Amino acid sequence: MNRCVRDFLDGTGTADIATLYNNYKMLAGQVNKKAIDEALSEMNFANDSNFVFLAMYPDKADVKVPTVDEMKAAVQAGRDAQVEAYVDNVKSDPLVPVLPKPGKVTKTTKAPFGYTQWTLSNGARVFFKKTDFNDAEILLTADSWGGSYKFADKDVLNGKLVETVMNATGWGNFTATELQKKLAGKQVGLSVGLGKYTDTFEGNATPKDLRTLFELLYLYFQQPANDPDAFHNVMATLRTQLENADKNPQKAFGDSVRTTLYAPNPRIAPLQMADLDKVNYEEIKRLYTERFASAGDFDFYFTGALNEDSLRTFCEQYIAPLPGVKKRETYTDLGIRPRTGMLMNRFERELESPQAMLIQLWNGEQPYTLKDAVAADAFGQVLTKRYLKSIREDRGMAYSVNADASLNYGVRNTYSLQVFAPFTPEKCDSVLLLMKQDLHELAKNGVRPDELEEVKRFEIKQYEEQQRNNGYWQGLVQQKNRWNKDNRAGYLEAIQSLTSADVQRFANKVLLRDGNCATIIMLPKGTKQAK
Predict the structure, then answer these.
(1) Cβ atoms < 10 Å from Cβ of 49
(2) What is the rounded CA–CA span in Å between residue 1 and residue 8?
(3) Can you tell me the distance from the alpha carbon of 391 to that of 401, in angstroms, rounded to the nearest whole number?
């Protein structure tokens, strides 16, 4: 791509792949140790030629900037230091030193979308589908009801950091650093997630590294490793981020969105610097262990280049022996909801660049149907195009404008429209007016035939591409299993039969029905509106 761009801009020309390969192959044969040593000798700083010392410091009264002599002394100390060659000690212990006694697959049934379901002896359920889309990809997701809403009020602060800390520390007998070295050269990854209502895993591996993925999964259900160094690194990173938060306009904007949408609540409140002094590593590990104590409460999904016999062996060896449960958990709904009505939060702050930001959020309760979900998505796509035309292209008031509308199912069935625009500060009132006019014009007169056809072409093309995507199929079976929603049956028909009236109905009967709209605007200090 870069070669094509350079050729277009500079007219330098580019060769075909075969010629480039042969040229690089020829050049590689001319490179030897002597040539590399000579090149490196010109790059070191044995003397002061071709050497620049650059230091950057925060513009703060309590930060001492070194003098020129102090900088020179630091450079000289580096030159004089006796540095021993680094020895990278890789821990040779196996990830799982003692294999557990295997469990069993006790039941096999057919599942939707061509998946097979195994029920394991500890109650865990495994859903898998073999595909030929990518011979180097196996995807894993796993979920269980639970999540952060299960934490008591006293545990909310530590609970906020469970996911961040546990994804940065070690497992088993390995610290985070040791584990990273142990996994070097392997194409495998696993992370833990903690939502409001669910406990989750996300992972991937190549077929040859699938056993390693299962070993990691097994370790994640054990007691977390004690890795204070990694924990302190996480805390140091958070301190640095929060120390500079007052200079980060995006952070201020995000906090304002949160405080506008929700009443004060510790579970919603952003992390503050003072909170870090109250965080306890042992409590974080305790909370993690409570949420991820029993694999028997989880559903595991595998999709990709699978070998069924190997998958069965690994499930029986690494998942089935883990603790089960007498009764599966369900979710806890704490009743935390966005504020309703027309809300406006317009504020100014010191900004280095004269760019303002605006977000407008519409939301409310709405029963879910696939037809209405398709109409909502189309509304967002068309509204984005119209905003770009009227606000950016015709009047140059915004750098970009994006509108995303959707119907969502879950613990609550809801609708939402989110509009985001970084814009010219002096044009704020004009931008708001155009946004309102375009939205209401679309609600009143509907979608033009050319706009509707463009949406249909895009959605059908995307649908066709998804048919050979492992993540698409895994998402389908997961949503069907969790919420009993089939996002595939009737989807093409819903797209092809979509009409302007359907889009208008979403706008008038859903979006504008409740009048729940929050607008948050951040302007540079001292902004005056153009007349």
Answers:
(1) 7
(2) 11
(3) 8
- Give the pLDDT confidence of 213-256 residue by residue, as tens digits: 999 999 999 989 999 999 999 999 999 989 877 778 888 899 99
Q: Which amino acid is at 295?
A: A
In whole angstroms, what is the distance from residue 467 CA to residue 265 CA?
A: 42
Q: Which amino acid is at 334?
A: L
The sign of the CA dihedral 432, 269, 350, 247 is: negative
CA distances from 57 to 63, 65, 240, 244, 291 (A): 8, 7, 14, 13, 42
Residue carrying structure tokens 């696939």: 370
Task: State the residue for tokens 């009505």.
Answer: 341
How many CB atoms lie under 10 A from the CB of residue 84? Answer: 5
Q: What would the DSSP string read from start to end of 252-307?
A: HHHHHHHHHHS-S-TTTSPP-HHHHTT--HHHHHHHHHHHTS-GGG-EEEEEES--
DSSP sequence for 388-445: IIIIIITT--BS--EEEEEEE-SSS-EEEEEEEEEE-GGGHHHHHHHHHHHHHHHHHH
pLDDT in tens, 365-391: 999 999 999 999 999 999 999 999 999
Task: Check if the beta carbon of residue 161 is closer than 8 Å to that of residue 279.
Answer: yes
